[in-house]
Amino acid sequence: MMCLWANAGMVILISMSFTAVFAASADEWTKRSIYQIVTDRFALGNGSSPSCDTSEKKYCGGNWQGIISKLDYIQSMGFDAIWISPVVENIDGAMSGDKAYHGYWTQNINSLNANFGLADDLISLSSALHDRGMYLMVDIVVNHQPQTFDYSLLQPFGGADCFHSECFISDYNNQTNVEQCWLGYSGLPLLDLDTENSTTVNIMYNWIKNLVSDYGIDGLRVDTVKHVRKDFWPEFASSAGVYTVGEVLTGEVGYAAPYTEGLDSILDYPTYFAVQKAFINGVSGDMATIAEIFTEAQKQYNHGAFYVGSFVENHDNPRIQSTVSDQSIVKNVITWPFINDGIPILYYGQEQGYQGGNDPANREALWLSGFDENKPLLAQIKNLNAARKQAISYNPSFLNNPVTFIPQASASSTLAISKPPLLALLTNGGSSSTESWSIPSSAGLYNANETLVDVLTCDTVITGSDGSLSVTTSQGLPKVLMPAKSLSATGSLCSTEAERSSGANRIDHQ
Ligand code: ABC
Ligand code: CA
Questions:
Q1: Regarding the domain with residue range 404-500, which homologous superfamily does it belong to in the CATH classification?
Q2: Closest of 341, 262, 276, 282 to residue 314, by C-alpha
Q3: 247 classed as catalytic
Q4: Calpha distance 345→348 (Å, rounded)
Q5: Is 90 exceeded by the pLDDT of residue 417?
Q6: How far apart are CA 351 and CA 330, in angstroms?
């Protein structure tokens, strides 16, 4: 095939099979909670803390050994999976001078980014995770490679004819334009791989199969999915053989839905945008939109919303705290991914209260926080992970039971989200607001005079004699209520309240 001329005799460099793959399926991933890492910005293997000016768009030194050295930090927050930056060898921006520290500028799909470590380091990371029962998700890019002045630098697709001919994406309403024109701009064009060519396509299918098995990868975050024709993806996903979650950057459920057929699922961007609008605009935002959009996602996505990646921050968008300072609002927003049907994803630095704005400011070095484990948001995240795990073990159908929204009087400023045994009460009112929620007995959630525990504070509330519930919060804080009987008296989550209630029940029954 012509486009490979520059690389005749190319061999697949990565073919050492050292580490066991869990070959984790979507169902296995639903029990998990994911911590998203920008590899260059998380930790250094030698434990040092160099300065890191995000605006310079340079490598700051984070690497795979650094991640290994901080797995305790991640695991003690309750995460049992990580998502890391793309691992393959990258090329820096030819014209802008920007470095490829984020990993999205593939040079050679068959070798690794030496800034992050050697093959042995990546294998060690995957083994260290598996030893702890954790999963490794790797970010991967199929759609494009950055332009260089010398095509032969790009491997294995080292010729102009490996790519669609030059045209920048100009019309997001024209799907052929979105799929076959280029991302980027004249200062940094991203050559659009010719995924209409069967040889190119087969190279990609083989590549992903090998990458997964060579490094013991358990899941893939797939970049720029909407920029490749839909029927490319099913065989890509089956070649990978592990859970695949695609980035389809859109606010429209209807546009995103078809991609949940070819891949296991997608990152839930439509709900992300609804959450941003509801909370980030404060009281002027409309909470009801979250329920509307998410209900559509539950209906239209293959497998409902159970396999989506649910997030409120990532490396492409301004952090919540770049625009919101009210900590009650921040705490409400952070709760969302942990109490819906999807797989929770937390973007590194959220737990430390990072405030970076748009790319590149939102990619701060985490080591500059000193990995402080005494932060209020970190404590909340720990509780949210623990609550979700407790819910999974208490209710065998928790993971297949779709969230319902219980209508509230102040629909624009409150949400009551039921996923038994969890009931999350959220508000965008802020720290000076007083908000109330009511759950009628007709919702059928509770018994009469039942004790519920807010697992974010361990405060308790008791249902009425008809099993209905009224709750008020004075400082706009979120509540995540669980029946005391669903908690464990020996667990880490409000065990005193769990114990007290089991004691009370014993007395009741005597
Ligand atoms: C670099 C510099 C930046 C500079 C930029 C121009 O160039 O670092 O400072 O601003 C990687 C790096 C980036 C780098 C880029 C460019 O490469 O991380 O730092 O930026 O080379 C993925 C990744 C992303 C990655 C790439 C490229 C793709 O997550 O990290 O970037 O490999 C589109 C793509 C999406 C892509 C995103 C960056 O661009 O679809 O896959 N992300 C509309 C379009 C979207 C478009 C989006 C942003 O705008 O529909 O397709 O995303 O441009 C909703 C609407 C949506 C709308 C959104 C904004 O609003 O429904 O349609 O999205 O309501
Ligand atoms: Ca494309």
A1: Golgi alpha-mannosidase II (2.60.40.1180)
A2: 276
A3: yes
A4: 9
A5: yes
A6: 11
